[in-house]
Design goal:
By secondary structure, the chain is of the alpha/beta class. The protein is built from nine helices and twelve strands. A seven-stranded mixed β-sheet has the order 1-2-3-4-5-6-7. It has a five-stranded mixed β-sheet with strand order 8-9-10-11-12, covered by helices on one side. Strand 8 and strand 9 form a beta hairpin. The chain is globular. The structure holds zinc ion. Zinc ion binds next to loops.
Length: 330
Amino acid sequence: MTKFTSSLTRAVLVCLLATAASSAHAELLPLPEGAQPVEMPAEGYIIQRAGETGYVVIANGYQATFVVTDDGVVLIDAPPALASVLAPAIKSVTDKAVTTVIYTHDHFDHIGATTDFAPTTIIAHEDTAKLLEIFPDPKRPAPTQTFSGETHSVTIGGTEFDLIYPGPNHEAGNIIISVPSDRLVVMADLVMPGWAPWRGWGNGDHIPGILQAHDAILALDFDTYVGGHVYRTGTRADVEDSRAFWVDLWTLTQEAMGTTPFEASPDGNSYNAQDTWFNAVADKAHAQLIEKWGKRLGGVDTGFTHDTIVAAAVSLWTDTPNIPAAALTK
Ligand SMILES: [Zn+2]
């Protein structure tokens, strides 16, 4: 009888948990219009103009940019997720070869298909070169040209490319590439047009630097912003939204940290006590963020944003204790 009762209890529990899981899913907000998927053409990718000479290729949740210059094609990132479509997409607009690849940053998911193009020149920030030297990968050849400091302008085949390093952000060495003649700006893994940031800004190296990177983008004049992910390119309004979301997330997290009591663990398990506290902070800030942004950006009400709040709380604890967002702008 006891056995029957306990298995019955278990069955009821499983059933209740299943209901809770499915109702939690059903409670997700519908995707806002700006976050909606875009129908894929038969060729399996979208190719979009950006000014006179710029093009953006979008497929499989990734984006890459290329610019046709007088001396060949300059490709900005070569994501493996686009490996099968990038060459046909370039071929569809020009017979010129890819002579130069510019790395936004060292992450494999953005540059791991570089060797498909055998470029003669690869340009990156010196911090990206250092990371690739520490972790050599034949799929991510070392840059042939690097720059240090905050800005570097290079003219390739008559087209000017301005490379800007706002300091460590999503990743050390992650740069902004501006093509003024096409009013085109590229920066990977920072602004996700229509969407909340990816989980914890993708293990963001320096969370305050992410705000400063937004400001560096907004200091430029552009029509098209390429963020490297999701369904579409962005505009200045998308970058402004992403910045405002960062400020709200930071500020609400900071407030929640100030109002959530910390309870030490009587058994000395300090990790568990801190985990409980970080989660309580994130629960509080997350509810307020969903209220304000849930109908404006995709994914705000998912666990990704909860994790992003925890990442901000850790940064507020370690990088920038008690510093308000306004004091972080350059
Ligand atoms: Zn990345």
